[in-house]
Amino acid sequence: MTRTLLNKFNQYAFKISSNTVILSLREGYIALIPFFIVASVITLINQWLNISMKGVEHQFLEDFNTLVWGIFPVLTLMSFSYYLSKNLKVHTIASPILVFTCFTATTGYITISGSDLAINHRMGALYSLLMPVVCCYSLSYLERLKVFRLVGVSSISLFLRKHLNLILPYLIVTSVVLLLFPYIDLAAETIVEGLRSLNPHWNVFEKLSMQLLISHLLWFIGVHGDNTYHILVSSELTSYYVLPDLISYNFFTGFVILGGTGCIWGLIVAALFLKKGQHEKRIAIISSPLAMFNISEVMIYALPIVFNPYILLPFLLCPLVNASIAYFAFYSGFISIQYIEEIPWFTPIFINGWLLTESVKGVFLQVALVLINALIYFPFLKANRDNNLSGKALDVLMKRYTAGRMIEEGAEGSFSATQRKEQINAHSLKEVTEALNQGALTLFYQPKINPYNKQVVGFEALLRLTNKDGTVSGPWFLETLEQHNLLHIIDNYVIDQLEIDLEQFSKHGLKPKISFNISPQNLLTGGYRRIIKAFAKFPGQVEVELLESSYIEDFNKTVTIVDALKKNKIDCAMDDFGTGYSCLSVLSKLNIETIKLDRSLLPDQLNSKSISLYTNLSEMISKLGFKLVAEGVETTDEEQVVKQSHIECVQGFLYFKAMPVEEAIYLFMTKGATQQAEDATKTKETEE
Length: 688
Description:
Layout: H1 2-17, H2 20-31, H3 33-52, H4 59-70, H5 72-87, H6 94-106, E1 110-113, E2 116-119, H7 127-144, H8 158-164, H9 167-196, H10 204-220, H11 225-232, E3 241-243, E4 246-247, H12 248-255, H13 264-272, H14 278-291, H15 297-302, H16 309-331, H17 351-357, H18 360-387, H19 392-413, H20 419-438, E5 440-449, E6 456-466, E7 472-473, H21 478-483, H22 487-507, E8 513-517, H23 520-535, E9 542-546, H24 548-553, H25 555-567, E10 571-577, E11 594-597, H26 608-623, E12 627-630, H27 636-644, H28 661-671, H29 673-687
Parallel strand pairs: 6-8, 8-9, 9-10, 10-11, 11-12
Antiparallel strand pairs: 1-2, 3-4, 5-6, 6-7
Helix pairs in contact: 2-5, 3-4, 5-6, 5-7, 6-7, 6-9, 7-9, 10-11, 10-16, 13-14, 13-18, 16-18, 17-18, 19-20, 19-22, 22-23, 23-25, 28-29
């Protein structure tokens, strides 16, 4: 029962992590991390000057600090809009401009007084996330409707045609937003007024709980929780005395949010003790210097905490636990407050504890709270590492939806070289671009089978396109992309996705050998370096399938590249041997491990000459020291020929079609060579 609930939660968490809005929000906030850090440092300096250097003129810094945080909503808006439009396959400049126009025209962020413009950064703070979603999704939908297209396929460039066809969708989205916003704003004002009318006579615990829960929930959805909470509720719920000598500001900064929102120091400690959590450890190390000053944005947006269901519970629980323990410690008289004025929020941990209590007890309390937070975070962080998408996995997930955009960027450059001929090529490339924009790249895995015992001995990674209607098709677009020198985009996706999928196999204790293809041109122009970087950590598990044209184009360079891969324990195979330029003389010069016999070599209707050719060719290749893989085995007669040829690795529809990685993992767990060997050992031990 517990396992079933965990599996359902993992599926739910994966759907959240891979949601287009969540992915885009993550990208948008990560892009803003440099801004957050610079803005926080400016605030630190400004606060320090206000406190320590009174009488020193620094109004310019005060103004700059106000301006930096004043433009924060619009920076969030533009960054989120850019990445959301990119992932929705709408124009990444035109769409954010539309969002910004609608935002400024409706929210009161920019106000007009006579001939002067002014910024009210509190206005529209909650709309910096809503407006991009409404505008980008509406524009994406309307852009696909043919009725709103002003220009069809014509002699003008794809780039110009795309922008002309945005005119009507632009007008419609702008009109709808302007018409609907007054009603949305009225509903929002009603909610805000309801929050502001909350009973200011609540007891301290109710005020603490409300502030911590709402502000942290706002942070969880990517909104600056502390500032927004102060905007939404009355001052009685943000500035009050926790105890007679302890104001809420000092209580929160000194003994609740240690390291910043979410009690980040506890999360950092938990991450540093997480085995195999390289992503989490790196983010923790980067975050540590900033957490000294209670700046938590790196952890919140880069781990990420935002919209991460695995971290939500401890993110909400730790502040409540800290508040409860610290309140009891002060209320019971175990620790006394000695300093009653506000201590700046950026005062480092332990220093603020000493200043507030003038006792080591205050410091020991902070240490205890950090350790308790680490214990709370640790199991959830471990579950996040084991099951959720993080780091490179999220990056690759985003790439699978953006290959069409990258190819479209290259398409414009291929339009105007030679007018008539390029029009034909650009039209075919347009079809490819539209197909990739509407679908998503993915990798499927075709099992390789030992024909004698039917064990799964490995897989071949095959590129597939999941279409808009959910159907899956093969990579019919590769030839067109090759004509335009754009295959490297697809190769890079395959390498990145295979790296993630190998890590998924590893999480289940599986180490299958997986082969994949790479274009010869990409291989010879440096693509092998990316392969080494991705797969050197999976020794003996990866096999690069080369076409014979790689050797024909530059034999010496190919030999050098294959040797470099072998030094990093990455094997190589010749794919589709028996087609195209295949030449027997080249076999004596190859430095690869495996030859894959193309299906075209399989005997046709048990033709005796074809059988003789297949078996003798197999024998000769084996004597040269190569391993053999028979491709395209679809009938039992073909399987019989393969067995007569003493080939121990085959693939084809007779056994399995290509399948998603989840199915491949399950198949290898149940029918993999390693699993069957373990089952045989257990059976033998039972018999003994």
